[in-house]
Model the fold of this input.
Amino acid sequence: MNYTSNKSLERATLIVTSFAAFVTPFIGSATNIALPAIGIEFSANAVMLSWVATSFLLSAAVFLAPFGRLADIVGRKKIFNLGLIIFTVASFFCAFSPNITILIFWRIIQGIGGALIFGTAMAIVTSVFPREKRGKALGIVVASVYAGLTLGPFIGGFLTKNWGWEGIFLFTVPLGLISIVLSFIFFKEEWADAKGEKFDWKGSIIYGIAIISLMYGFSKLPDLSGVIFTLSGILGIIGFVYFEKRQEFPVINIQLFQNNRVFAFSNYAALINYSATFAIGFLLSLYLQYIKGLDPQEAGQILVIQPLLMAIFSPITGKLSDRIDAGKVASIGMAIISIGLLLIGFIGANTSIWFIIPILVLFGIGYALFSSPNSNAIMSSVEKKYYGIASGTVGTMRLIGQMSSMGIAMMIFSIFMGKTEINPSNYTEFIHSIRTVFFIFAVLCFIGIFFSLARGKSK
Done:
């Protein structure tokens, strides 16, 4: 392939993957803004509302690593396109859910589509771009993710205020259709660097059951059933690791974690970072609407600050990680986020909006410094045949971290508030809950700095 066609393929790849990368986080952040409206319509408590967000993450986490591996074998373009189709169809049916149970069901299907997209997008970008351009390209894709997160609260708040929460899902349908059209137009070749190898069905099933048990159990803590499911999930993961070590073609290559220090510790850092940050938007959305009395549109205009800064700075930090050690850049980002979490842990009923806004700025800059360089370190630490597995692993760490983040929030809500709806009679308990969660997150993120530094040089 000549230089011109290489350049054309690189541009096309960025257009398609960036658009797809925009759609999935958009629906997540927009849905967070709509949760109070969904709660009112379906008379749902805080724990049930959190499942509207968590169900998507859970199904995506279960299927992401297996689909990343399957994409290496059968072709990343095929899996990517299938994901776009499933995601778009599920978005349509979410809008017509008659109750919260049906809504959660379609969010699960939406998560499966998201897993197909997450598990292949970064692998496709890594397949197309040479190492010296990879950080910048991944930074642009990550910026698209943050653009989705940025516009989600803003557009989601506007749609919820004027057309109800259903408008968010209907708005997503044409975005998904555009992504499908772009993919079929621009992707002319297939990437399947592990073609001919076997797919590990047994390992995938063990992995899925373990993740479901762990995350469901985590959401039920501190109840006895929560302890039983959580321990079962931990034992399942231990069993999965033992099983995978004996497989010729494992769904997750455990050797990468044992023999590749950069890959292992970059993934651990990602897991801790997402565990300490994902529920921030969920908690602040509830806080701004219930405690500060803002409508969904006004809350969205404030929450837009953090992902907007992520979108602006991610291509810059990604390019920076092509030139200097990605691990150091990511560690600085983690430290900045830790400071922000410690500060916001002092939030109260009378806290000024002007106290929250600078902290959102800190989060935005810190997260941009962490995410693109960390992704670059992971994807650049493996050989070509493992791009799908690496992409799936990155996404899995993100999703398990996001679920853990929501799980911590759900557990604290259960301890302080039980399973009651949020109302003025329990606002004091609600504030105690979110302050506790933020302090737990601050400690987690501080620990994550050392995991990020422990990877050593990533180049």
The chain has a mean pLDDT of 83. Residues 3-42 form the longest helix (40 residues). The two ends are 27 Å apart (CA to CA). Residues 341 and 442 are 5 Å apart (CA to CA).
